[in-house]
TrEMBL record:
InterPro entries: Aldolase_TIM, HMGL, PYR_CT
Protein name: hydroxymethylglutaryl-CoA lyase
EC number: 4.1.3.4
Matches recorded under Gene3D superfamilies: Aldolase class I
Keyword Metal-binding: yes
Molecular function GO labels: hydroxymethylglutaryl-CoA lyase activity; metal ion binding
Length: 311
C-alpha cells in the first residue's frame, strides 16, 4: 500500500536555538544544518533576520546561511519580522556568487492570535503586524521568494489566557490572502491537547471557512508532552505538514516556561509503520539530537532519542 507523504519542517536551528542563553558559535549552527541534511531532512529553518536586541542568539544567521551546505531541491527558510530584515536578506542574496545554490528561497513571517503576545514578540498589535507583513510579503514575492506564515498562541496565550479559535481562523485567512503558501499554527505555550487542538482546527477549516487543511501546518511545542498526540489528531483533520525540532530543542523567548517543539525523532517514531511516510532517517536524526544536546550541555529532550541512546 502506497504511503502518503508528510512534510516535516525542521525548526531546530531556529526555534531550537533562539532561546539558548549561552552563545553558540556559528560553526556549531552550520554543523547542525549539515548533519540534518545528511540525515535526510528536506526543509530546515536555518535562522532569523530579527532584531539582535530582541533575540541575540539569531544574530549570526547571515554567517550560517552563507556557510552551510545547501542542496538543490531542499529548502532553508529564515524568519523575517519586517522590511528591514527582508532588506538585509536581499542584500546578502544580491552579493552571493552566481551559480551557487541560493542561500534561501523562502522566508517565514510571523504574527499571533492575541494582541498581548503580538506586542511581546514584535512590539505591535495583530492589525499593525498584518499591515507590516503585507508589505514584506509583497516585496518577497516580487523578489521570487516563497513566504510561509506563522500564527502564534493558537490555543493559549501566556499573557491573555484562552484563545478564541475564530481569531486564529481570521488571522490565518489574512496571511493566506496576503500570499503565504502555507500557514503554520503555533501552540506556542504547548498546553494544547487533542481535544483543544481538534476544536481549534474544526473552526479554522470547518463550517463556512474556505481554508483547506492542505495549506496548514501544525507547530506544536511539547511543554505538556502532547506534541505527538496533537500531530496524530491533526492528521485526522487533513493536515500533512508539521514543524518539529531535533532533540526537542527550543522555546520562544517571549513565552516564559514553554519548552521546545515536539522532537523530530518522536514524530518519525510515531509514524513508523503507519500509512504516512515522513522524510529523514530516524537513527541518523537521533544521532544529531544526541550530538546537539551534548553541544548545548543539556539532556536530550526527545524521549525516543533518549531511549535510542540507552541501547
Ligand atoms: P522594535 O524595537 O519595535 O523595532 O522591534 P524598531 O524598528 O524600533 O528597531 C529597533 C532596533 O532593532 C533598531 O536598531 C533597528 O534598526 C533594529 P537601533 O536603531 O536601536 O540600533 N532592527 C533590526 N535589526 C536587524 N534585523 C531586523 C531589525 N528590525 C529592527 N529585522 C521587531 C520590532 C519586530 C524588530 C522586534 O520585535 C523583533 O525583532 N522581534 C522578533 C522576536 C522573535 O524573533 N521572536 C521569536 C521568533 S517567533 C516564535 O518563536 C514563534 C514561532 O516559533 C511559532 C510559535 O511557536 O508560536 C514562529
Ligand atoms: Mg515556536
Amino acid at each position: 500500500q502506497a504511503r502518503e507523504c508528510v512534510r516535516i519542517v525542521e525548526v531546530g536551528p531556529r526555534d531550537g536555538l533562539q532561546n539558548e542563553s549561552a552563545v553558540i558559535p556559528p560553526a556549531v549552527k552550520v554543523e547542525l544544518v549539515n548533519r540534518l541534511t545528511e540525515a535526510g531532512t528536506e526543509i530546515i529553518e536555518a535562522g532569523s533576520f530579527v532584531s539582535p536586541k530582541w533575540v541575540p542568539q539569531m544574530a549570526g544567521t547571515a554567517e550560517v546561511i552563507k556557510h552551510m551546505q545547501r542542496r538543490e531541491g531542499l529548502h532553508y527558510p529564515v524568519l523575517v519580522p519586517n522590511l528591514k530584515g527582508l532588506e538585509i536578506l536581499l542584500d546578502l542574496l544580491a552579493q552571493q556568487p552566481k551559480g551557487e545554490v541560493p542561500y534561501t528561497d523562502e522566508i517565514a513571517i510571523f504574527t499571533a492570535a492575541t494582541d498581548a503576545f503580538c506586542k511581546a514578540n514584535t512590539n505591535c498589535t495583530i492589525k499593525e503586524s498584518l499591515e507590516r507583513l503585507t508589505a514584506v510579503t509583497a516585496r518577497a514575492a516580487k523578489e521570487g521568494l516563497r513566504v510561509r506564515g506563522y500564527v502564534s498562541v493558537v490555543i493559549d496565550c501566556p499573557y491573555s489566557g484562552k484563545v478564541d479559535p475564530v481569531i486564529v481562523r481570521d488571522v490565518t485567512k489574512a496571511l493566506l490572502e496576503m500570499g503565504c503558501y502555507e500557514v503554520s499554527l503555533g501552540d506556542t505555550v504547548g498546553t494544547g491537547n487533542p481535544t483543544t487542538v481538534g476544536k481549534m482546527l474544526e473552526t479554522v477549516i470547518g463550517g463556512s471557512s474556505d481554508i483547506s487543511p492542505s495549506v496548514l501546518a501544525g507547530h506544536y511545542h511539547d511543554t505538556f508532552g502532547m506534541g505527538v498526540s496533537n500531530i496524530l489528531t491533526s492528521l485526522d483533520y487533513g493536515l500533512r505538514t508539521f514543524d518539529s525540532s531535533v532533540g526537542g530543542l527550543g522555546g520562544c523567548p517571549y513565552s516564559p516556561g514553554a519548552t521546545g517543539n515536539v522532537a523530530t525523532e518522536d514524530v518519525l517514531y510515531a509514524l513508523q509503520g503507519s500509512r504516512f511516510h515522513a522524510p529523514g532517517d530516524l537513527a541518523k536524526i537521533a544521532e544529531v539530537g544526541s550530538w546537539i544536546s551534548k553541544q548545548l550541555n543539556r539532556t536530550n529532550a526527545s524521549r525516543v532519542g533518549k531511549a535510542l541512546e540507552a541501547r
